[in-house]
Amino acid sequence: VTERFAPSPDLSLALDAARKAGALIADRFSKAVVAERKSGGKGEVTQTDRDAETIILDILGSDSAYAILSEEAGGARDSDAGLWVVDPLDGTTNFSRGIPLFAASIALMRGPSVVLGVIYHPLTGDCYAAERGGGCWRNDERLSVSQVADPELAVLYLTHGYPTADRARYGKALSRFAPRSYPRSFGSTAVELSFVAAGMGEGWICSGDELWDFTAGMVLVEEAGGRVSDWHGDAWDGESLYTVITNGVIHDYVIETVRDLQKK
Q1: What is the bridge-based pairing of β-strands 141-142 and 83-90?
Q2: Sign of CA dihedral 240, 244, 246, 251
Q3: pTM of the model as a whole
Q4: Could you tell me which of 165, 120, 114, 122 has the C-alpha nearest to residue 138?
Q5: Does residue 73 register a pLDDT over 70?
Q6: Closest Cα partner for 56 from 26, 86, 29?
Q7: In CATH, which of 1.20.1420.30, 3.30.540.10, 3.20.20.140, 2.40.160.50 is domain 9-142?
């Protein structure tokens, strides 16, 4: 593993796209924001989401032949030859309410494997990046997951999708972790997973989030020394939205706690 940050051309392209979109997002934060309800009850969207997405898609599309799947624009999910997975503004509700926890997220998948990821925090300028075999980095600093193994000291981020069943499963999981650990929900999966990669929290439990929310963070945490699985502890299959991502040493505790909540 390299001991200095040396991004590949694909990772460099993703970094450029995330930073330029992030500059727009930061410039518009705390200004008057109009949030619209998405159809189907799937949260909110702002013009900043759309404009940041345009920046990212233009950069990726002009210098890469890979297909693109993005939260607002949609796209194909056939990733064998390479698929960019983009969330231009993860944490839209936080952004629209003036809560400073949101990020731009870009991943590249090949088949079921996430090969690189970038999470950019617009307000701090911190850029989290990783690709397979190259470690995980925040700017030029090499990152490692925490080594907290005690469930009673574990900070665990929990999130859910919009369907009623996803919310109910999240509620059940939260009720199990709350008496023993420190559950948190910050409203941005990308932010939460970048924190896990940096050792600021031990795990993340997903009840139905979308691919564009967590794929970048998944490779960050793995390259920082963490572990990924579904709620049964089985390897992530490239599609499951019931995902556990941890520092590794707390993983078995998390799986034992939620295993029965994911139906086969």
Answers
A1: unpaired
A2: negative
A3: 0.93
A4: 120
A5: no
A6: 86
A7: 3.30.540.10
